[in-house]
Amino acid sequence: MEEKKVRMGIIGLGGRGYSMMLGEWMLAPEVEITAVCDVYEDRTRAAVDAVLERTGKAPFGTQKYTEVLKRDLVDAVYIATDWATHVEIAVAAMRAGVAVAMEVGGASDIQECFDLVNTWKETKTPFMMMENCCFDKRE
């Protein structure tokens, strides 16, 4: 019996988000990229095309992270947007019951730290601050 894969959404497809998608996330056999999102349409299209080319399956692509969260497309999201939007997206994802892996440069102030902690206490949705260098297998 084939094991169920984690359905992953990538939110933020700049240099870090796109390279992590192509590298670590797409190379993990237990992960399937089912959604990609960036405010820039060309980045979203490039990510859709890259996933389709490598896997034969096109993920859902959008410029609005809320579209990813309101559909039953993902079990988890990796957030690599600009730092100012990390907490907003992470809180929305946890409230939607979607596990979060968020790039560092997480919170901008103490209130945002409490927003993350309090949302986790409220939802118990898994949350992890990512320092991608710790997970980068390339030398």
List the helices and strands and how they pair.
Layout: E1 6-11, H1 15-27, E2 31-37, H2 41-55, E3 60-62, H3 65-70, E4 76-79, H4 86-95, E5 99-103, H5 110-123, E6 127-130
SSE string: EHEHEHEHEHE
Query: What percent of residues are in strands?
Result: 15-25%
Sheet with most strands: strand arrangement: 3-2-1-4-5-6
Shape: globular
Helix content: 40-55%
The low-confidence runs, each spanning 5 or more residues with pLDDT under 50, are: none
Radius of gyration from the CA trace? Answer: 14 Å
**Average pLDDT number:** 92
Given the helix and strand composition, which structural class is it? Answer: alpha/beta
Please provide the count of β strands: 6
Query: Major sheet, described briefly?
Result: 6 strands, parallel
End-to-end distance: 35 Å
The number of helices is 5
Question: What features would you describe in this structure?
Answer:
This protein is 42% helix and 21% strand. The chain has five helices and six strands; from the N terminus they run E-H-E-H-E-H-E-H-E-H-E. The protein has helices at 15-27, 41-55, 65-70, 86-95, 110-123, and strands spanning 6-11, 31-37, 60-62, 76-79, 99-103, 127-130. The chain is globular. The model has no long low-confidence stretch (mean pLDDT 92).
